[in-house]
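Table 4 source record.
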Amino acid sequence: MGKTFFQDSEPVLKFPSSIAALLKKLPEAMKYGVREEVCRSFLFEEDSGALDKNFYHQPHELFISNSLAETLRIPADLIFQIQVVQEKVFLGPTVGLLLGEKNHLYNLSYMKKFKNRLGAYKRFGGVVIAFSTRSIDWVIKVAYGMMYDPIGNCWRYDSTTIPAAIYRRNFRHAKLLDIWKSTYRTPIEYGKFLLENRKPIS
């Protein structure tokens, strides 16, 4: 699902009417990474099309107020998946690659070797960020590191909320899809960020 930020000093979400059938009740909170924020939700009339035509390259739009996006540190240029469970909307996936403690060894040149591990990225989208425990602000729960940029097929320095899934084993020889599968082993967990009418990635 794509997203558009709009100006509002309050934490607000606006869902396209095309997914109204999936919402038993409008969500009252958003979960992104390890953080959760209370918010107000609305439907907007502009219809993005049928749900079965909701793809990575042609996603429906979710409107997020700038105050909510800034609080949760949601990147503006990435495509996410959502799932609404009861009165909470999950935005993801968010995947962290935990580096060692020697921060001076890790830079954009170092991460170039891992680009070929991201071939499956467009099957699920979301955030992939590499960081060490020394680059985490534990007070505001933000990880600073190198985020994968799918448009340029490269890495960039960025920050976001600490991811919900953190892969801490050696990922040098692991493809991202394998990392995702090993992190979310059960069907419920593995599909937790997918729209309810879609099957988990196999």
